[in-house]
Fold these 2 entries.
Entry 1:
Amino acid sequence: MNSSLKKIFHFFLLKKRVILFISLFILLGIFLPGQTAHAQWQWLINAVTYIPMVTISLVLVILAGLSTLFAGFGGMVLNWVLSSSFIDWSYTKNPIVEIGLSITLPLVNMFLVLILVFIALTTILRLAGYETKKLLPIFILIALLVNFSPVICGLIVDASNILMDFFTSEITGGERLISTLKSVGDALLGVVDWKKFDVKTGAETVLALIVLIGVNFALFLILLLFAFIFMVRYLAIWLLVILSPLAFASYILPATRSFWKIWWNQFIQWSFIGVTMGFFLYLGDQFTMLSNVIAPASGIGGVILPGLVPVVFLYLGFVFGITSGAMGSSQIIGFAKKTGKKYGGKIGKWTKNRGAEYIASSEKVQQIAKKMATAQTPGKRWWTKAAASVPWAVSRKVGHTIGPGLVDSQRKLIEEGEKKLSGKNIDYQVSALRRATTSSQRVAALNAMIKDNNLDDAIDNYGLTREEIENIKLDAKKYNSDKEIVSAMPSAQEIEKIRPQRAGQISKKALEDKEIMKAIANSWDGRHVQSLIQTHGAKGVAALEGAIKNTPDFSNKNPALSQFIKDTAGQRLGFGGGKGDKKSDEFAKKWLKGGL
Amino acid sequence: MSEYTKEQLWKIYENIPKELKEAIFSVETADNIHSICLKVGVKEENNSKIAELIGDVLLGILPPEELQKTIENELKINENSAKKINQMIGRIIFLPVKPALDKLYEKEENATEEKTKKPMIKKIEKKSVIGDKYQEPIE
């Protein structure tokens, strides 16, 4: 390579006189005729320059043909690289990737076990800080995702390929441009009328041929560069897919998270560089078409321009494509980060809440989690116990986190919500209930309403239905936060479960239910009644009186309440027995009609 | 004993102090009534009557000092037994709510006293102006 360059250099050194002579003739041919052309000089100049000009033009025409061939070859290579026949291997599933993954995946699984042991040890030794506790959910998520990392990569690559194909399916790999340049060559040959030789036209043709050759070689190089980038893209994506399990796993620990960032940047860049490159190729192709239309119809400039402009444009496109590939991907990452922060927080919170709700309310998951959380370390001898202690500790921790721990956190959320809403007016509480997006928020709002004795008001004046209450009660049951709702709107079966201090929370609607009242007459005692009367006063007594009168053999069925009624100092206010029967009946009837 | 309708009694109930309201329907009061009756040997069918009278006192419609006599008349028992029951009720049931009870009956007394007090004061004033011979007349 060096020797040939030296030879060329020596040739120019030795033959500089010849070159100088030829150049002089060309320049004279271009400038003199326009300036001081005289008929007597013109024939002489034409005669002297004819042979060298024709010789040079012939050499240049051969070179132009060759350069067009080269450009065509570049276009062919690009077309081939872009075509499906270049390689039919998938980006994520091919022998190379499979061999790579067979190494990285087991390695990552080992890595995951080590991280798990690390988390377990820090938990057992109570070294676990907030960060370590945070690692566990990330660890579980990554452990699940790591084996799907090629699939996830495939999704991203496919998305970028769809975009890329949109552009590359339309381009001709420079074919249109090459044909334009070929036609430029033909046009140049047409311009030169060797029989009526004119030195000015000859010089213009030579210059145009030189530009054409340069443009052709430039096009050849650019098309090869495009092809090279598309080829390297395959290899880069394969390599990145092979490394994807390691990259995913490195996300778990804060110390290794930088590796994930590098990998992610590279992966996005190499996936989307195809899109930007495809776009500029497409644009170059379209520009060729356009320049054919808008180029000046006559003159050498008009002949050269349709070929020159798109090539320059392609070159600039390539440079911009290379830089914007990185730039674009970094912008995508930047945009993703920004959007992630803005909406991800909300979505994450929503997803977290929903996810937590789903797990906490799923009976099956809770059963498994409960078993895991309370499991005893197996083994009879100390070494078997010691060996099993770490995995069992982890299992207990996981079980606790997704089982009782999650239910507990939901309950805490409800309690916090209750605290916030307690003491607020009924409008605020009903609004909170209607605006609630999670079941824990709904339970909190209803509990606050019940505690503030606003439930009857909500039913009577805000259209809160029994069905709504029943649905919220079902949710509350899952988080063991249903005591308030059960007390306020119990079923007949739940009456006996209500504690005396909560008996006063029973709603007016529930007191109108005959089955519920029957259950009250059968199962409650004086403590319940005391609490009931404190809240409902005369209405509560009347409802209970009515229920007792409709319960045959009441004193035997509920001796405790029967005894209380005989001994209570509130005889004349409701439990008067024999003497005031008629009056109390009327009173009870009035109450049930809502007349009191 | 005056006859009140249930509605009237509930209106009275709404206006008595909170401690008395709680005492009327409290399980503790009911248990205490039961054990007093048991100790003194009141027939079980009379428990409700005693409970009713205690309720009247707590509602403010039967003054505590009239309870013994009312028990004696209503249950037709001798004075000693009625006194014993009354003492136990006073000590076990009324004592914990004594301030509220005193306040309740003081109000009633004040209400009746005020009716009679005003003319007496006028009489005294009149007397003092006319009858005090040692007092110099005011210009």
Entry 2:
Amino acid sequence: MKNIRSVLIGLFTGFANGLFGSGGGTIAVPAMEKLLSVEPHKSHATAIALILPLSAVSAAIYIFKTDIPWSIFIPTVLGSVSGGIIGAKFLKKVPTKYLHKIFALFMLAAAVRMII
Amino acid sequence: MKFFFTGILSGIISGMGIGGGTILIPAITFLSDITQKQAQSINLLCFLPTAAAALFIHAKNKNIETKILKPLLIFGITGAVIGSFAALYIDNSLLKKAFGFFLLAMAVREFFAKT
């Protein structure tokens, strides 16, 4: 049973992450916790171990067919690496409950704008 | 500069486990005239160095459940190839709408999540 679950989690995570260029973690983390009984503190790390190679494969396919706007990519990647470090160092000290709700509203607004 | 700050914000959010890309992709499409596919390419590429650094730290702390990874990786890569080619063959405006619905679902889940 667990094998079938792993197959489905892998397929869904890879497909969504490839189709949308993001979002693999938002599928893999809860799926591994609920369906494969991975402990919560390990699911985040294990999801990265899964999604990093998936994103590398997807990025390679995208690069073939898309003009990458390097002038936007370079400042963005410098920012996201810095943000990752800031987050890792300081995030544990901030109560994130309300941040989650605020970001959910931002996501909702962005979603509506993209759909309409 | 605006892209640098967008990157910082998405990097911080990634650490919260929300998925930085879900913020980064709409933000950079609103701030410039790039296509949905270009934005998705940028996000995939931005994820690689950040995730590699995080993975290194997690591996050192032995937080990775390696014994379950093999089937996930095999079928994950299969799914990634199908999903990526699908994205490249779909029209940009349709892909953007589909992304919007995906984002909507995640926003609703995030809002009601117990954290």
